Amino acid sequence: MTVRHFLTLKDLTSKELNQLMLRGIELKAMHKAGEVFEPLKNKTLAMIFEKSSTRTRISFEAGMTQLGGHALFLSSNDTQLGRGEPIEDSARVISSMVDGIMIRTFGHDIVETMAKYSSVPIINALTDDYHPCQLLADMQTYYEHRGSIQGKTVVWVGDGNNMCHSYINAAKQYDFKLRIACPEGYEPHDGLVEANKDRVEIVRNPMDAAENADLIVTDVWASMGQEEEQKLREKAFADYQVNKQMMQQADSDALFMHCLPAHRGEEVTAEVIDAPDSVVWDEAENRLHAQKALLEFLMAK
Ligand code: CP
Ligand code: NVA
To answer: Is the peptide bond prior to 261 cis by the omega test (within 30 degrees of 0)?
Structure first.
């Protein structure tokens, strides 16, 4: 049987992604009802972190425990990866002892190389280019609050970063329209926009982009690894803050999402993210349930 990986949303079919979302909702209900479900008994997930994390680490680790398995936290500083052992060798060795590998790293080529040399599924837990696991949670959250996202209008405000790229893939896979409002010089990859131009457009003015939106999403202005650009980016993104006026441009039922961590007063105001009906906390919690569905899909026999 060929090993399935999850490096981007394109690794699963649209049908599989929709089934996975419904399964995430089911697993959430089972968990809340106290049902014990352990399809990954005696299985191990290696979790390699070359960047910081709160949500991703906790959701994968708790998720593996709940599914009856075990998660192994591997920081690059404490393994030979941090001392330059080749990715190819590491992938071969680690995959010979575990049942799945989750990795958060810098270059997307690193997860691609891992996948090439690994005998078990590789899960991309964020690279400089993509963050597909977050989209599983975002799509589940939208569905739980508003039903199907098919045919809806989603607006991405801010940096054309890893999250934005995953939203472009999501537009294709979950069949929605995506408007991207970003300053000049901070666009998502050209090729990706071009390949999805039937669903994706760049709209420079964020207030124009937000008009009648069903979902507004943003993320930090400086991602992990771009810390020294923070000041420069604060200037470039000054007009790209999600605030109450922008939410008022959107549909009256529009949701706001943010993968977190958030910088209040920068990409989003406290008034928007801390609103009583804000779904960002459900969005964060759904990392657990959505990824349990993914782990089951990739790792259960
Ligand atoms: N959204 C997200 O991936 O959060 P962490 O960086 O805390 O894992
Ligand atoms: N774009 C952000 C997402 C964090 C979850 C980053 O890469 O730092």
So the answer is: yes
Which residue has the least CA distance to atom 3 on ligand 2? 223
Q: Where do the CATH 3.40.50.1370 domains begin and end in the chain?
A: 9-130+284-299, 134-280
**Helix, strand or coil, per DSSP, at residue 6:** strand
Is 259 a catalytic site residue? yes
Give the E-state strand segments of the chain in sequence order.
44-49, 70-75, 100-104, 122-124, 153-157, 177-181, 200-202, 215-218, 255-258
Entry pTM: 0.98
Ligand 1 environment, Cβ below 6 A: 53-56, 126, 134, 259-260
Tell me which CATH code domain 9-130+284-299 carries. 3.40.50.1370
The alpha carbon of 280 and the centre of ligand 2 are apart by a number of angstroms equal to: 15
Does any ligand 2 atom lie closer than 6 A to the CB of residue 224? yes
> Taking the chain (301 residues) in consecutive chunks of 10 residues, what is each chunk's mean pLDDT?
95 98 98 98 98 98 98 93 96 98 98 98 99 99 98 98 99 98 98 98 98 98 98 98 98 98 98 96 98 98 81
**Is 31 a catalytic site residue?**
no
- Name the CATH code of domain 134-280 (choices 3.40.50.2000, 3.40.50.300, 3.40.50.1370, 3.10.310.10): 3.40.50.1370
